[in-house]
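Hello,

Our lab assistant flagged a job as stuck in the queue for most of the afternoon. It eventually completed. Since we weren't sure the result was trustworthy after the delay, we are filing this so someone can double-check. Below is the sequence as submitted and the structure that was eventually returned. Let us know if re-running is recommended.
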Amino acid sequence: MSNKKLKILAVDDDMINLKLLKSMLLKHDNISEVLEARNGADAIGILKSTNDIDIILLDIIMPVMGGLEMLKVVRADENLHQMPVIMLTTDETKKTEALENGANGFLMKPVRAHDLTDQIRKLSI
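-- returned structure --
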């Protein structure tokens, strides 16, 4: 992984998933902070108010604004469209749609720490 300390935004409506992701991520020296959001709408608010997020980890199925809808908003925003996004889900049938809409990576839940850090490393080089 690069020497830069990364700030990650984890978006998932399940608090247990958020805590697991945060725990996995903060074990790595190159990750300085993990911000959390419970839905896409809250995550967009965080992205608009924080300009130093490096990567988004995004659940697909959430209330209020789901991950695919949020991904479309991010890709359409001139300030956010380059932001790396890794989609997380239990529904493998969503993989093609996620990638077609601009996801940089896709992981099945339950997420394995090695797979997650490998994707983050590839996107942060």
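-- support follow-up --
The delay was a queue issue, not a problem with the job. The result is valid. Residues 90 and 122 are 22 Å apart (CA to CA). Residues 15-25 form the longest helix (11 residues).
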